[in-house]
Amino acid sequence: MTIQERDPKQPKANAVYSGKVGKKSDSKTKQKTIAKPKTTSKAAASKKAPANSEDAAVEAYLNAQPLERQGILRKVQQVIRQAAPDALEKISYGMPTFWQGKNLVHFANFKNHLGFYPTPPAIEHFAQELADFKTSKGAVQFPYAKEIPYDLIEEITRWQVARQIKGE
Prior knowledge:
By secondary structure, this protein is of the alpha+beta class. 33% of the residues lie in helices and 23% in strands. It is built from five helices and nine strands; from the N terminus they run E-E-E-H-H-H-E-E-E-E-H-E-E-H. The strands form two sheets. It has a six-stranded antiparallel beta sheet with strand order 4-5-6-7-9-8. A three-stranded antiparallel beta sheet has the order 1-2-3, with no helix packed on it. Helix 3 packs parallel to helix 5 (150-166). The longest helix has 17 residues, at 67-83.
C-alpha cells in the first residue's frame, strides 16, 4: 500500500469521523490522528464529572443561575435526591426534573421565588400545608423572602414516588 500525498492547500475530501476518539477515516487515505490531550484545571479537577449528558444538562442549568440562588437550588436538588434516590435527573420543560417512569417533580429558579412543580394531585393532597404559598393547578411558588420549606419539598417528593410505585 502506498501513501498518497495531497495538496495541503486543498481541503480534505470526504473526511468521515469513525466515532472513536483519536481516529479519523479519509476515503483516499487511512490515517490516525492524535487525540487532543485532556486539560484539567484545579477547579475542574475538584468537581465530580457528571455521569451522563442529562446530569451535565442539570449541572449547566444550576451553574447558569445567580450565585446567590445556587445554594438554595442545590439544596432542593439534594433533598429531592434523598426522597427519590432511584429517579433520573434531567432537564424537561427547561428545568431540572426528577423522572422515575414519569415526571415526579420539577423545580426552577425565578426572580423572586423557587418554582416547584409536583403535579396537580400533589398540590391537592398537600393543600393545607401549601396554604401559605401561591399555588396553581400543578405548581407552587416558594418566595425567596421566606424560608424555603425543604422538609415539605421532601415530603411531597416521597408522596410522588409512592404514587408512581402504586401506578397512580
